[in-house]
């Protein structure tokens, strides 16, 4: 293997490893995001929600955490909430029309 290829391989490996988060770091992000997301859903969709323990953190691709949940009043209405885990601002919510029809406010909630 040539020296340039070795250097490039090491550089790429370092970039990939620098973006990896520990499980406890991801859990800390999740634990901080859930109360903010719960308040966001209460304020903007007038809904009490439950967030499952399933979530995705898209680091290092972007700074998003995706939380998955459902309405407490109707567990069949599920949704995904996308939040920037560095600012804890909600980017958007995806769900069925029954949830979108509940939207009452478009103000941001977060620190």
CATH domain fold name: Nuclear Transport Factor 2, Chain: A
Helical stretch tally: 3
Q: Could you give the count of β-strands?
A: 4
Residues in helices, as a percent range? 25-40%
In the CATH classification, which architecture applies?
A: Roll
What class would the helix/strand composition place it in? alpha+beta
The portion of residues forming beta strands comes to: 25-35%
Largest sheet: 4 strands, antiparallel
Radius of gyration: 18 Å
What is the CATH first-level class name?
Alpha Beta
Question: How would you write the strand order of the largest sheet?
Answer: 1-2-3-4
Secondary structure topology:
Blueprint: H1 3-18, H2 23-45, E1 49-57, E2 64-71, E3 74-84, E4 90-94, H3 97-100
Antiparallel strand pairs: 1-2, 2-3, 3-4
Description:
By secondary structure, the chain is an alpha+beta fold. It has one domain (21-100): Nuclear Transport Factor 2, Chain: A (Roll). 39% of the residues lie in helices and 30% in strands. It contains 3 helices and 4 strands. A 4-stranded antiparallel sheet has the order 1-2-3-4. The protein is elongated and about 60 Å long.
Output the keywords.
111 residues; alpha+beta; four-stranded antiparallel β-sheet; 3 helices; 4 strands
In short:
The protein is α+β, with helices and mostly antiparallel strands and 111 residues long.
């Amino acid at each position: 293997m040539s020296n340039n290829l070795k250097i490039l391989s090491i550089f790429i490996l370092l970039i990939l490893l620098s973006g990896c988060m520990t499980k406890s770091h991801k859990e800390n992000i999740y634990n901080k995001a859930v109360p903010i997301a719960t308040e966001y859903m209460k304020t903007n969709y007038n809904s009490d929600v439950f967030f499952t323990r399933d979530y995705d953190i898209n680091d290092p691709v972007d700074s998003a955490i995706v939380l998955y949940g459902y309405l407490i009043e109707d567990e069949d209405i599920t949704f995904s909430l996308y939040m920037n885990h560095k600012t804890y601002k909600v980017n958007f919510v995806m769900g069925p029309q029954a949830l979108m029809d509940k939207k009452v406010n478009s103000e941001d909630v977060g620190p």
